[in-house]
Amino acid sequence: MIPLNFYLILAAALFCIGLFGALARRNAIGILIGIELMLNAVNINLVAFWRYIKPAGATMDLAGQIFALFVITLAAAEAAIGLALVIAIYRSRDTVNVEDVNLMKW
Amino acid sequence: MPIDYLPILVMVVVVIAFAAIALTFSALTGPRRPNPSKLSPYESGMPPFGSARRRISIKYYLTAVLFILFDIEIIFFYPWAVLFRQLQLFGLIEMAVFVIVLLVGYVYIWKKGGFDWD
Amino acid sequence: MDLIVFYLFATLAVIAALGVVALRNPVHAALCLAVVFISLAALYVLLSAPFVAAAQVMIYAGAILILFVFVIMLLSPGVDQGAGALKWQRPLAAVFGLALAVELILVLASAVLPAARGQYTPERLAQIGDVQAIGALLFTDFLLPFEITSLLLLVAMVGVIVLAKKRVRS
Asked: Which of A66, C9, C15, C19 could form a disulfide with C32 if both were Cys (CB 3.0 to 4.6 A apart)?
């Protein structure tokens, strides 16, 4: 049996890579892709914890998997809204580079 | 159990091997006598112009974005369909509430012209 | 055997994830993202969560990724050129990412996590069916989150139309 820590370390690595991507990219689509990576890392944690650790109550037994499904749903909604925002920004400013979208800056 | 997924792994390996073998075999055995018209992207076609990196108009992108939001429902519909008999009337009502809320969104998109081509 | 599969797909996922953030061409980054999604689906199978694995392939690799590729094709953001207005953005992002990685790995290396498992062991799940067990909980104890999900999707639909629909000139 694979130790739980292996999964957690993999998830931590993916989360940090996603964080780097979200911080380092200047194009809005790249930032959204980094966020998707981070959400995936969270999902590994949820499913791995379900598999290895006894949860509090009997009804919460499958919570890890069900939470993962909700996270997938949320990720889809987030991608749809995020990309719609990118398209709206592109329409009005003709760029997807977040540095050029600085009207709100003081 | 993970071992039940061996056929999928075998299929993946076969697919990769087939692509690799087909590419290497044709590269090794095919005759290569290039001339300018053979090397043009569309032989006997029109000459290409501009860069291939330009923007591609995808009129149906809005449909694609909306497709995602409706595609998600299979996660919930599938377990519901599996458990349909067990859940009985209660399951039908809860799924009806779920679908009605989504139908409101569908009607909204329709009224706003989200499905129009232009 | 399990360990080999884990190492194979974990390495694949990490390498592809590095490709996602390192490759400057957004189309290549999106293709690497597909590899990440599919390796993670394999890991879910290894964790005996086949329904989550199927959802991962169908929703993430099949829908979300396609959407990303569509938008990349539509907007053609081009390759990320070197440093922009914020010269320290990339190095600073690397510092933050690495700091978090070191922190998490230090915590995880020293953590002792109990190994007990709940009522639904993989053996039991295989017996009653993964989808049945998930559905039985999803439509009873998780009824409220499930119904709220439909509201979330409704909000997303309205948002997409408001943000991305071309205004009709009247």
From this structure: C19
ipTM of predicted complex? 0.88
Calculate the alpha carbon distances from C18 to C10, C76, C106 in Å. 12, 22, 21
Instruction: Provide the 10 A C-beta neighbour count for residue A45.
Output: 20
Proportion of chain C above pLDDT 70, given as a percent: 83
Name the phi and psi angles at C25, rounded to 5: -80, 120
Q: Which pLDDT tens digit goes with each residue over B1-47?
A: 667 788 888 998 999 999 999 999 988 888 888 887 777 777 777 77
Q: How far apart are CA A41 and CA C48, in angstroms?
A: 17
Residue in chain C nearest A5 by alpha carbon:
C108
C15-C16-C18-C20 Cα dihedral, nearest 10 degrees: 170
Nearest by Cα to A83 from C70, C57, B109: C70
Contacts of B93 in chain C (CB under 8 A): none
Domains of chain B in start order, with CATH, are 2-111 (1.20.58.1610)
C-alpha span between C168 and C170 (Å, rounded)? 6
Contacts of residue C69, defined as CB under 8 A and 6 or more positions apart, other chains included, come to: C27, C30
For residue A84, count CB atoms less than 10 angstroms from its CB and return exposed for 0-12, middle for 13-18, buried for 19 or more. Answer: buried
Alpha carbon of B30: minimum distance to chain A alpha carbons (Å):
41
- pLDDT tens by residue, A25-63: 888 888 999 999 999 999 999 998 888 876 555 556 788
Q: Does C39 touch chain A (CB under 8 A)?
A: no
Which domains does chain A show, CATH number per domain?
4-100 (1.10.287.3510)
* Global confidence as pTM: 0.85
Helix (H, G, I), strand (E, B) or coil at A97: strand
Phi, psi values for residue A97, rounded to 5°: -80, 120
